Amino acid sequence: MEIEDLIRFGVLYFIGATLVTAALAKVFVGMGFKENTKAGSAESIVIAYNLVVLMTNIYMAIEGVNGWWFSPVPADKLFGEFQPGPFLKTLQVVYQFWNCFACLAMTQYRTWDAILHHTLTGTLSYFFLVTNHVDYFCVFFGGLVEISNLPLCIVDICKNSPTFRQYFPTLNQICRYLFAVAFILIRNICWPIVCYEYWVLSIEYLTSKVTDDFMFSVSLFGLTVNVALTGLQFFWGYKIASMIKKVLVGGGKAKNKSA
């Protein structure tokens, strides 16, 4: 994809996602979602934001599953063309930076790990896109793993919207369990397995006689960022495991009622 096409698509996504968020927020206000979150944001905006995130993640997850499980594996997993890798990288670039700005605008999402995750993922996707690098692995990291984010969107809505949580208490609990299982299975078990192959191939490439200095830098940057993102997965996995432990021993029951 040419830079001009990326910019055009990015502008359209930014405008479209923002307008849809605003329109949905107005609809939810009309439906009676007029309270504020504990952090001070309007619950209608938080719900609308999460629904836009959910719609984008559903698309990326479907494309990722279709590509990872049903497309022929390229002989060269670092530089071979693998659909829908290029478009998923494009979508990740614009989605992650839009999400970064959205998080900065809402207090409850303005955390160092969220901002770091969106910034690193968006930047890495950009460099992989312009160098036609790791289509194969991007289908997993930028597509299939988004499955774990689907129940998380509902959990976030319930966490931040007292009105929504009151209307759908059972949905809240179901999505909590689904998110915990999906995150640990996909991001704490499958993720490092795929990472291992990516790391081995990348190290082999970096230790070979690489003549393209820019490609060498991108590959090294990608490997470094992947290690950092892997650390974030285990950091979040530890937090999830800690919450599961509290629930199992009875310590999280009261907290969940007041959340």
From TrEMBL:
It is a multi-pass membrane protein. Coiled coil: none annotated. Its main location: membrane. It comes from the Eukaryota. This is TLC domain-containing protein. It is found in: Membrane. One of its GO terms (biological process) is lipid homeostasis. Pfam families: TRAM_LAG1_CLN8. Residues 1-249 form the TLC domain. Keywords: Membrane, Transmembrane, Transmembrane helix. InterPro entries: TLC-dom, TLCD. The lineage of its organism: Eukaryota, Viridiplantae, Chlorophyta, Pyramimonadophyceae, Pyramimonadales. The chain crosses the membrane at residues 6-29, 41-62, 134-154, 174-194, 214-236. PROSITE patterns: TLC. Signal peptide: none annotated. GO terms for cellular component: endoplasmic reticulum; membrane.
